Task: structure prediction
Amino acid sequence: MKKKIVVIGNGMVGHYYVDKLLQSDLELDITVIGAEPRPAYDRVHLSEFFSGKKPEDLALTSRDYYIENGVNAFFGDPVTDINTEKKSITTNGGMSFEYDQLVFATGSYAFIPPIPGNDLPNCMAYRTIDDLGEIKASAKESKVGVVVGGGLLGLECANALMNLGLETHVVEFAPGLMNAQLDEDGSRMLRKKIEALGVRVHTSKSTKQISKGDECRLKMTFAEGDVLETDMIVYSAGIRPYDQLAKSAGLTVGERGGIVIDYHCRASNKDIFAIGECALWAGRTLGLVAPGYRMADIAVSQLTGEAQSFKGADMSTKLKLLGVDVGSIGDSLGNTEGSLRYVYSDACNYIYKSLVVNEDGNKLLGAALVGDCAEYDSLLQYYLNGIDLPEHPDDLILPQRDGSAPVGLGVDALPDTAQICSCNNVSKADLVAAVDSGSHTLGELKSCTKAGTTCGGCSVMVGQILNSELEKRGVEVNTDVCEHFPYTRQDLYMIVRSEQIRNFSDLVSRHGTGLGCDVCKPLVASILASCWNEYILKDEHAPLLDTNDHFLANMQKNGTYSIVPRVPGGEITPDKLIVIGEVAKKYNLYTKITGGQRIDLFGARIDQLPPIWEELVNAGFESGHAYAKSLRTVKSCVGSTWCRFGVQDSVKMAIDLENRYKGLRAPHKFKMAVSGCTRECAEAQSKDVGIIATEKGWNLYVCGNGGMKPRHADLFASDLDDETLIRYIDRFYMFYIRTGDKLQRTSTWMDNLEGGLKYLQEVIINDRLGICGELEKEMALIVNTFHCEWKSTVDDPEKMKRFRHFINSDKKDNKVVFVQERDQIRPASKDEQLEYAETA
Amino acid sequence: MNAINKSLDTTLWHEVCQMDDLIDDVGVCVLVDDVQIALFRVSGNDEIYAINNFDPFSNANVLSRGICGDLKGQVVIASPIYKQHFNLKTGQCLEDETVILPTYSVRIVDASVQLANN
Result:
């Protein structure tokens, strides 16, 4: 008979446990009972619910998954009773199940401080998806919000309230923020930094009462008698293990909560286990997901017969709170007896770093980092692997100003067992093995090992290991664009600029060989256009172009073309709409609205392009460059002009930006969007450059992508005025054009830039490379020399002559055949073409 | 492969256009007895090439709109749709040895371009 396993709780750890059971060879009868109304979801990324993620985006599993795998799963019906004699449980709804083995994965709940009035309306916890729904709803009616608790979660919650547009306060009982991870000075630096960001911080505050407010909905009264008015209060003052059920079943629980477990994760009854945040191991509860997963592994190993022991878990963390990098490793507070501390503090830039070392000064015990986590990965490796510190350990945290390389830990010094990616538990040895079996690019290595694919924090180190391993194997990575040029795209770009090369034949005679090909020709055409912005159909450039650029339209599968007139910002007059409609009707074109807020006209024969564009140009349309590796559109929401919620005129900004960057050639196409408020209706965070209006200006996001590999854009700079915004975007694009690889979108470009977002910010905001002046000048040239390619073409009879299928006949291409579908044309299938040929 | 004409009807030379009608390294398409032929004047070696305009991979008449160049010593045209390469002299597809497109002889008489079966 199959062993009956009952799992109480379906959070991240509970689900992980069931998944591990399913992956094992065990024949089991598994029952899962979750108290929340939905199956397990990703609580680590819970705050993304505020930036628009839906519960289903956060879901880790589904009811269907359990059904398909033969697991009996029930949600929203909590277990109320356990009979350890009969080995059975009963739910609130009266269901009853027997077990051979019972597993508690009940997790924890938000601690609500026992303050009179803590249950008034608009007071809520920050813990579950339902909580977040309530917070979102309450924030809509609020101007001011208070977070009670200045720990990790509290600050994450404060970030959410800020993004919801509230005046945000953090009230902390202890004297400092993040007391568990940061020493006093580090905590003070963090406070200064987040205050500079606009969050009001109140520490050493004991709330005595919450009551109805005078100005706002609520009023908090503190021990000293001072008060704070607010419209809503969110508690994030720590978590408590869900252990009441275990207690009533007679299991031993800790004094301050938590189901006591042994090294095998077994509770005080031999048939019952506890894993995750509800468990008390060696006198501690562990509130991170990684140790919870390890406990689940241990509990599964007791069933598979290869019983392992839980030996604790590394609680080091690195994260971004309100855009501030914060890292904590090991004994960051220096509690170890005899430990010594190195400190670096930079109050101008809100940077604080401290190292805790042993008495002999040769081993790292812990570290705290605020404002700059660049050294986190190296330090963590020193800590986890007990690597000997260099002669002067402070070199590890002191800034390098004389141009010398940072003293980070060389990857070669790491032992094979060193864990590089902690999210996916990938060691250096795993990476080396993957390189051996053929992963020779960063992308391949990541997808093969999963390293760097969750939080991405280790990407730089993964790249370093890759390069070092390739070097050791004598693998020379060929980055030449093709057989005609022994250079990368970036090299060619710099050659064209520095030698002022104006055409392909000059470039190939000076630096290449042969005739060129369909790889290097379009690439060089793009570089020439990025640098000098000449008319692309000039005789010396025309042979370089892909057919799309050559005919200024997009070739479709049957050899006809589609046409996209520019509609800046998606704003269009009725008259212009009518022109598009009339043109489409006259030439019998298939019309479709695009995702970029414009209209695509399909099915034009090559000889129809000139008359169509003559009509469009006369009506005031310009080329939409849908055929080019250049700016597509700047999508916008309707903005403050019409929308009740808009805080800036997003449409005007979008039109201005589209007119500024239209026609700019780049390594690949790029897209933009402008949203008029934080609701983000223009979906700017999925664009290469996204802009979201704030009360004070614009937030700039970069390197997002929809398409094949979706990636949310990263916040690059906040509350910019119009001028600064445009300056940063000018620099950003020109830097991308200068350093991007061929056909590399901005998202992969940034992922492959050593130092990633932070480096980009250094270059573009702080001008670390001293090139911003050049970049702006280069952009100014492009903007000032803009000309509509279709207008130039329509005005040039010689060029118009190229748009013919046959140069010696006016006949049409007999392979272009259309059939009707849903009242419009579509290309005929192969069979339909044959049928047509027979009847014709 | 398809019900498309590939062969010119006689061994005669057909006048298709004037040298002035060609632009270096940019293809054009001519129609000869219902056969579509792509013509290229390649500037690097001053040769004129003629190859059938039909791209069997996309089932469309488009090769005249591809980019020409050379790969490993062969003068080639790349299909503008799925990017296969064809040797302009022999018609051999570089990616699929079973595909060979018809090519044609070219001669210049005074300034007129003439084609015939190979």
Observations:
- The interface with chain B takes residues 483-484, 505, 514-518, 520-522, 539, 542-547, 550-551, 555, 557-559, 802, 805-809, 811, 813, 815, 830, 833-834, 837 of chain A (CB under 8 Å).
